[in-house]
Please model this.
Amino acid sequence: MKKLLFLLAAASLSIALSADARVPIGTLAGSVLDAQGQPVSNAAVTIQTSDGSEPFATHTDTNGHFQIARLETGQYDLRASSAGLISDWTKRVMVHANKTTEVLLRLPARKA
Model:
């Protein structure tokens, strides 16, 4: 009887863990442009869930592109910064399961 209870408990735990492993994920990708529409290399891209939690940062490549894979589906807020310039937040960007969501971030012009 104890062996049967142990096997049932182990099976239940295994099912619970495998359910957690199947959290829907997607990819967020995009570009950062300057005020003249030119790509910005090595710009910092900050991403957080739309409730303000789980902040994360990455950088653009030499062509101004970035990609963040394996994000849980949901809404995210993003902004970019480079050389003291910071873009406005792009809010409530929806990441869908098994899809890539594209976003364009623009840095403001320098003040004279």
